[in-house]
Design a protein that fits this description.
The complex is a heterodimer of chains A (512) and B (801).
Chain A (H helix, E strand, L loop, with lengths): L1 H11 L6 H21 L15 H18 L3 H16 L6 E2 L18 H9 L6 H14 L3 H13 L15 H4 L1 H10 L6 H8 L8 H24 L11 E2 L5 H11 L3 H15 L5 H18 L4 H17 L12 H4 L23 E2 L5 H12 L3 H14 L14 H14 L2 E2 L6 H6 L2 H12 L6 H6 L6 H31 L1
Parallel strand pairs in A: 3-4
Antiparallel strand pairs in A: 1-2
Helix pairs in contact in A: 1-2, 2-3, 2-4, 3-4, 5-18, 6-7, 6-11, 10-23, 11-21, 11-23, 17-18, 17-23, 18-23, 19-23
Chain B lengths: L2 E3 L6 E3 L3 E4 L6 E4 L5 E5 L4 E6 L4 E6 L12 E6 L6 E6 L4 E5 L8 E5 L6 E6 L6 E6 L3 E6 L5 E6 L5 E6 L6 E6 L3 E6 L8 E4 L5 E6 L6 E6 L3 E6 L6 E7 L4 E6 L6 E6 L6 E5 L8 E3 L6 E8 L2 E9 L3 E6 L6 H4 L3 E5 L5 E6 H6 L31 E8 L7 H9 L7 H14 L3 H15 L24 E3 L9 H15 L1 H6 L7 H7 L11 H15 L3 H4 L7 H8 L4 H7 L3 H17 L17 H17 L3 H11 L1 H4 L19 H9 L3 H6 L7 H6 L21 H12 L14 E5 L7 E5 L9 H4 L17
Antiparallel strand pairs in B: 1-2, 3-30, 4-5, 5-6, 6-7, 8-9, 9-10, 10-11, 12-13, 13-14, 14-15, 16-17, 17-18, 18-19, 20-21, 21-22, 22-23, 24-25, 25-26, 26-27, 28-29, 29-30, 31-32, 32-33, 33-34, 35-36
Helix pairs in contact in B: 4-5, 6-8, 6-9, 12-13, 14-15
Classes of the chains: A mainly alpha (512), B alpha+beta (801).
Amino acid sequence: MAGRTGAAGRWDGLCSRDPGRRQAALDGVRQAVLSLSERLGGGGPPAPSPGCSSPADGLNEYLVRLLVLSRRCPFSDVRDKCGAILQVVQEMGVRIPRPLAEGPSEFIPEKEYLDSFLKTQHYLMHVDGPLPYCYRHYIAIMAAAQHQCSYLVNLHVNDFLQVGGDPKWLAGLDSAPLKLQTLSEVNKILAHRPWLITKDHIEKLLKAEEHGWSLAELIHVVVLLTHYHSLASFTFGCGINPELRCDGGHSFQLPSVGNCYLFAITNGNNAVEERLNVQVGSEQGTETTCEVEALMEKMKRLQECRDEEETSQEEMATRFEREKTESFFVAPSENEKSIDTREISRHFEDPSYGYKDFCRHGEQYVPTFRAQDYTWEDHGYSLVNRLYPDVGQLLDEKFQKAYNLTYNTMAMHKDVDTSMLRRAIWNYIHCMFGIKYDDYDYGEINHLLDRNFKVYIKTVVCSPAKTTKRMYDSFWRQFKHSEKIHVNLLLMEARMQAELLYALTAITRYLT
Amino acid sequence: MARMPTALGGSAVSAKTMSCSLDAPANAISVCRDGTQVAVAGRNIFKIYGIEEEQLTERANLRVGRKPSLNFSCADVAWHQMDENLLATAATNGAVVTWNLGRPSRNKQDQLFMEHKRTVNKVCFHPAELYILLSGSQDGSMKCFDLRRKESICTFSGQSESVRDVHFSARDFFTFAATFENGNVQLWDMRRPDRCERMFTAHNGPVFSCDWHPDDRGCLVTGGRDKMVKVWDLTGYKARESHCVQTIASVAHVLWRPDRKYHIATCSMMVDHNIYVWDVRRPYVPFAMFEEHKDVTTGIAWRHAHDPHFLLSGSKDSTLYQHFFKDAQRPASRAIPEGLSVGLFGDVAFAVKESLCSAEGSRKSYGPDRRYPFFFIRRQDPAEQFTNVSSALSVFESQPGAASMDWFAQTARRYGLSGGPLPELCDRNAAVARQLKRYQVAQIWTMLKIIYAGACAAGTVGSVGQGSGKAGHPLSSFTLKDGTAALGSEAKLDRGRLENRQDSLPLDSTITLLQTNEDNEETEGSDAPADYLFGDGEGDEDDLFIVDHENAPEEHEFILPQEGFPLRHEILDHPTTLDHFQDKTDSPHISGNEADSVSLTPTEGISLVSVSQPPFEHGFSTDYFNPIVRDMMCFYAEQGDVQMAISVLIVLGDRIRKEIDEQTQVRPNKIRMSFPRFLVNVLTGCRGALVHVLHRPPTAIPTLERGQRGDQTEHVPIHQLPEPGLYHPARQLQQLQAANEYPRLDVREVSTGSEQVCCVPPRGEGLVRLVSGMHSWRTPPARHGLVPIPHPLPDRMRTPL
């Protein structure tokens, strides 16, 4: 215990404004690292072996921290010095970690897109609310684990411990308090088949004797679950890299061809596949240059004939059903990639319970959800804001921002009204969840969203862990990364709203 | 049912609340001109019902044809007020449909306008023009239709978000109002489709509904998602908000009541199923309410434009109701007039009906004192339907410096947490606490030393409790200035203390076991008219100890060298002094219990104080005390004094650490909650007061919510509190409550009679008093005959007891 606090104290000095103190702290760290390295004799490669506490482990911890600091520390002197220490250690013959990727995302060289919902995120996780902090992070872990999103799981395991969560809970859902265990079913349903949630589920959670949740807590839970499900979608959709300090973010192995394979698996991303795809991509390159023009042409045509063409009621109804049914067939093939789920699967019960399309089986059929009967703006907002004030407002702003966000550009074209396209994407996602807008012509979706794009949307929204770089690359090839990120934001928010709508409807039914 | 003349043709009709069930949820209703029929429209329903003497009967089903068409999925319906055959519906797919009941065929559909791109939220006929129809749509536009033509005659583009409501002015021929999802209200002149005449922001978030006053020109009421109902005076150059009512849920519909200048009917979008009729001059209590519906009310309409007695309503619960006004609930008549206000410096003013404070005969009556300027009788205004009530005002003033957190900073500065042997640290901290007059804390440190540092204990502790009789803990110091809600008697006071000790200080109760053993329930359930809890355990305990010291003639006998629990020692070793002890508590209840307890002592009394040497020599290891110490730390953390808990944790270090599991972890955000604690305690002492604050919902109280949905326990006029800044006590109190509400609350009736007492444990320790029928309704001060009290309160206003 004392050793730990001592070590922590050593790092604390690095935060000081006083360069002298930083220097002193750095010297302390340097000495500690060097002495540890020497003790190890410099020869043995410190193989990371979780669980057993060897000096090698202690050293590795130091080294990883140093690596992070050498890249991310706002103080340049700390960055340099940490780099230097690593250098020295390496010269002593100890293997040092190296980053596996630059920037937050493997796909996209951008850093600022996460900002749009930080406010909500902050409010949900760090501001006074119905749930204790460790519960919040644990629920976030549960939700992210449901989609095998190791990035978010790792992030929140850290935070969970930081706010004083019991490390024992992390051994698996069985070790968590019963109260949290009761959430597992709702978590599963919301993640994969939100339309199946009923007021009975809600009642079960609220009435579970001493393990029962209060209404306010439940709203918080539901918002957290849906938030993290869709965040997982976003994470996979953009191919977010693991944080530098987490497993999978760094490697003690030397760079070699074989290694790529390893991290492709642990990361859930497909570096190898990417290499194989290079040729395929270049072949298709030429024929897609006019993709954007074609899309814009279609939008223009739709805009014009919208006013003239009179579609029959039946036709409109079947168009929705067709999209809904079709959305099943664009599912990605099952075995596109394998994911190492050992670590994260313990947080949820049934890994086999995945997204199921409700058109597939007769018994799964759920009547279409009429968007106009229960809208977020009118009903959802009112309910959430009543039980968990301010969150309704924050979510409302977030949804609106995501929905209305536009740079008025499409690839190389400027000043384009993209509202039609955005609405098509939004409604397509809701359509996949069975939510139907009476005032929308679902024929538009068919015109505007091509198959590749649908596959991508479908994968990201329904089974995000299966997203690959190939999928990301194969839709909207001319579009800028920022535009694709924008799509991902839309996907995330639309998905969250869809899940929320189902959950809130169930709660409303329970209340009436 | 009474028969009474109404405006319906001047004849007497039966007056009755009645209902009929529809096949499907209704989205909107509209009444025909003569008040004999009502149209009900929804996603799967469009029917005409006749309003007869005894019942509502189905007259016609306008949904014909085999295939359900989205054109008939109605969001709104309007019945023309000049032509009883003419109706219009707004469809969710963007269609505007008109219906002619005079058509000979089964299909009464007249015209179909497919012009809107999105859902049409509202249709409205011109009140004086037969062929003019206006629609407002989600696509942000309003369209004006001339029914003699095939398409709209003009389109008004709001240039902002979706249109939620459109309404022709009752007085100005060309004017209509439109409300928007972004909170704006626009006024348009029909002849100027290029731009609106006026625009102002009425609400935060969507404005769901508006209605022009039938008589007052330029008077518009709006209702929004922000739970507000606002009345606007549009006659001036700028729109002026003349009245504002805050309801408890998003307002879906607003409707002026015929022939009642200040009355508005409202229903809400979610959660709350009732229909309220408000008098805007009294914005806190609904004038009347109808509680019949089991699901959200989606449409309301007065039966006749000049009859204020009948209200029709349709609901998601698939019923249609005619409400007779005489049958309405009148919450105001049930309410106990009382008011609470928190002053800028933490003073609390509390007014309650005079008769109520004198009702409790057992204690001194503190009637109004006419010498004081804050009481006078207001002259009755015959135009108002309010009963005048005379109230007594109590002012609770915070002691100067009571709210100061000085001790906190001092403690932080002077405590020793490391860098010395345990006994030394304990001594030092005890001394610091003593100097800050926190005697209980000082005792704790001393005891910790004895427990954990054993041998070193002897002879180092000075006598304890030689301080003044004043409660030492600043948090609890709050003087009660007027006895309106004061303690009943010494006995009650004592009991309150005992109870509180039991509740809140496990450590203490283990030691003192007996005094409080089990008497808790009994006292609480007892029939005493007032169970006042003076919530703050710390101060009271200090108080108690100190009182003991001072009052006990044989003080010197009680004091052991090591510690200050003379009483225990006394009881154990000298049972004869029981009498002395009993003398102190007037209540026979208590003394009885005490006697029992004392008799138990020898078997169970492992009293710290009964030993003159370190306990472990008697076979107790420090492990034995660990749970007690842990409980003590929890107690302090719960009390908001995280500092104490953490200090103990640090000083004891590994000695106690294994006892600290996730249950005992202290949430850091509690720290800033220590400040408003005194408020809670004082408020719990005066009737009804806390209810306001407690039920201020961030998180609704689950039990209450389910049990008393109709009672609007949460209806709190927040804006009546002085604008709470972040550090304002009122604000902190609210946060405290919010944070304390997540454990399930236990609401039980404690005393009988006209009052209910709600106990709100687990975190928000204290007693909440709910006077039955009051349910936290709050009447505005004007009805009380109170004048605002300037802040800070002048000393002369202390009411003599």
